[in-house]
Predict the structure.
Amino acid sequence: MTEKSLAHKVVDQMFDHDAFSQWLGIERVLIETGRCVLRMKIRKEMLNGFGIAHGGITYSLADSALAFASNSHGRKSVSVETSISHTVAMREGDEITATAEEVSISEKIAVYYITIKNHSGKTVALFKGTVYRTSRDWEV
Amino acid sequence: MTEKSLAHKVVDQMFDHDAFSQWLGIERVLIETGRCVLRMKIRKEMLNGFGIAHGGITYSLADSALAFASNSHGRKSVSVETSISHTVAMREGDEITATAEEVSISEKIAVYYITIKNHSGKTVALFKGTVYRTSRDWEV
Amino acid sequence: MTEKSLAHKVVDQMFDHDAFSQWLGIERVLIETGRCVLRMKIRKEMLNGFGIAHGGITYSLADSALAFASNSHGRKSVSVETSISHTVAMREGDEITATAEEVSISEKIAVYYITIKNHSGKTVALFKGTVYRTSRDWEV
Amino acid sequence: MTEKSLAHKVVDQMFDHDAFSQWLGIERVLIETGRCVLRMKIRKEMLNGFGIAHGGITYSLADSALAFASNSHGRKSVSVETSISHTVAMREGDEITATAEEVSISEKIAVYYITIKNHSGKTVALFKGTVYRTSRDWEV
C-alpha cells in the first residue's frame, strides 16, 4: 500500500465513526501523510452570545484536522496539548478552511500548525497541536 | 445593582443568545464575578472516530466558561489565546463539570484556569484562557 | 529508599550539573515527589530593554521547576510543550518564588501548573508545562 | 522616516538597554517591520542537568525576537501569552537562529510564530507569542 493510500484509509475509517465531525459538516478537501485540508460552513446553531461563531467551532475543526494529519502515518496518535488564537470573528454562512502542516515529528511526539482561513483568504484562527504517537498501528 | 446580580444579568443575556452552548446542553451551576461552574452530559453525536468525546466538546464547554467568567465583571471581554490538555477520555453518558477561576486580572488582560472533571471527580481536561478586556460595558 | 529521598537524590544530581540554574542563582526551598518550590532574585544582567526582568528569566525558573518536579518520580521526563503568561513586571532586586504542582499524571504524559509570585505574594507569571515520561530511570 | 528605518531605531534602542539579550550574545541578522531574525551560540553556562541547552535559553532568544518584531511598528507592545515546544536538544557550541513572522495583527492584539533552527537547518524549537499593543509610541 502506498503512503497516500494508507493516509486515506486511516482517515476514512476515523471519519466514518466521527459523529461530531459529521455534525459539523466537515468535508475532506485533501488528505496526505502528515497533512490535511478540511472545510466547513458556519451554521446558525454554531453561534455564541455575541452572534458570532463559538470558539469551540473553529477549535473543533482544527482538532479534527490534527487527528487526521497525525494519524495519517498509520500510527495511533493522541492529542496531548493544543492552543488556539481566535483572530477574526466569523458569522453565519461563512465557509472556513483548515490546513494542517506537520512542523516537527520524532518517534514519540509530533507538532502541527493548523491555520484556519475564511472564504476571502483571511486567517481567522491559529492552532498549534502536540500529539503523543503510541506504538499501536491502525488496522486498515 | 450588586456585583453578583450584575454577573447573573450579563451571563443570562449571553446565554440566552448562545445557540451553541444550548446545543451542548450546558447548565449553569454557579455564576459569580470572575468565576463560574458549568455542567453538561456527553451525547452520542459528540463522539469522535475513537468512540470517545471529541476534543472540541470539552474545549467548547471550557470556552463558554471563559466567556461567562470574564464578562461577568460587566465589561465586554474577548478571548485572545486559549490552550487545553485532554488528560482523560470521556464516553457517552459521562457528565462533566467545568470550574473557571480568575488567576490574574489587570486593566486590559485577564487570565483564567478552567478545570474539567467527570462525575467521579477525576480531572479530564485542563484549560488556560487569556482575554482582552475592551472598554465597552454590557447593557443590562 | 523512601519516595522523598528518591526525589531529593534525583534533583540533587540534576541541579549539580545544571549550570544555567546555578547562574540564575536558584535555591531549592522544597523538593517532594511531583512538586517543588524554587526561589531566586532578579539581578541587573537579567533585565530587558524596558528595564524590567526579561521574560526568559521567569520562564527559565519555571522550566527548572518543571524539570525537577517531573523527574522527581525517578523516571527521566522531558518537556514537550510549555506556555507562560507574564502578568506583572519585575525589577532588579525582586525575589521570586516558583511553586510547581502536578495536575495530571499518566503512564506517558504529565502536566504541571507553576505559579511564580513576588516577595509580596502577588502572582507575576503563570506557567503550564507538559512532559513526556520516558521509560528510563535515573540512577541514584 | 521610512518604516524600515523606524524598525531599526526602535530595536536599536531596545537592544542597547537589554542586558540579558547581551548576556545571551544575541546578534541581529535582520530587522524589518513585524519581522526579525536573531542568532546566538550555546555556551557552557547555558546547559542544564541533562548536559543540553536549558529550555530557558531557546525561550529567551524567541522572547527577544517577539519583543523586537512586535515593537518594530513603533508602538509599545507587551507579551501576554507565549508557548514553546522544544523539539531537538542542543549542545555547547551549537549556533541557533530565530526567525519571527507576524501571523496576525489587529488594533490591540498581534500574534507571531518564531521558529528556531540549528546551523544545519533543523527546527529545534517552535514558539507562538501573543502581544497586547498599547497606545504609547516609542520615541526615536
